[in-house]
Amino acid sequence: MSFFITNLILSSKINELINPYSMKQMMYPCLWFAGNATEAVDFYISIFRDSRILSANSLVTFLEIKGQKFMALNGRPDFEPSQATSLVIECTSQDEIDQYWEAITKEGEESMCGWCKDKYGFSWQIIPENMEKLLFQSANAERAVQAMMGMKKIDIAALENA
């Protein structure tokens, strides 16, 4: 019996080494809210289809959005979010960019180059999944960067045609 258990544990460890996607997430952001974390979590859950609450109490809520773990903390109003840190959403289509942009900026703020803030003050970048290719690896990369500098919400076609 112990041979079987040892092999099972070894198999699990080997699988983690071979398949990094099977590993437990070791880092995740803690989002500090001024007492309205529950409201914010409900807002985020309403925006992202693949999301769920993992556990919650009056101080902390752990949630998962598209496979990414987050902690939402009901803190005091001592700290505010900063634009120095942003959450990046990679989108597969212009429709997806439009959907997230509309939901996040509805009571938030638009900024430049795909950046925006939600109503809780957290900064987001809503970008196409091929943004790196468009801005760094395509023949028209320099023109795409210039086009992006004039955008608020990212327009994929405009970047591709720059």
Mean pLDDT: 88
What's the β-strand tally? 8
Estimated share of beta-strand residues: 15-25%
Summing up helix and strand content along with how strands pair, one would put the structural category as: alpha/beta
Given the structure, what is the number of helices?
A: 6
Radius of gyration, in angstroms, nearest whole number: 20 Å
The CATH C-level class name of the largest domain: Alpha Beta
Approximate helicity band: 25-40%
Q: What would the principal axes of the Cα set say about the shape? A: elongated
How many distinct domains? 2
Pattern of helices and strands: HEHEEEEHEEEHHH
- The named CATH superfamily of the largest domain: 2,3-Dihydroxybiphenyl 1,2-Dioxygenase, domain 1
Separation, N- and C-terminal Cα atoms: 65 Å
- Major sheet: arrangement of strands: 1-4-3-2
CATH architecture of the largest domain, by name, is: Roll
Protein name: 3-demethylubiquinone-9 3-methyltransferase
GO molecular function, one term: methyltransferase activity
Keywords: Methyltransferase, Transferase, Ubiquinone
InterPro entries: 3_dmu_93_MTrfase, Glyas_Bleomycin-R_OHBP_Dase, PhnB-like
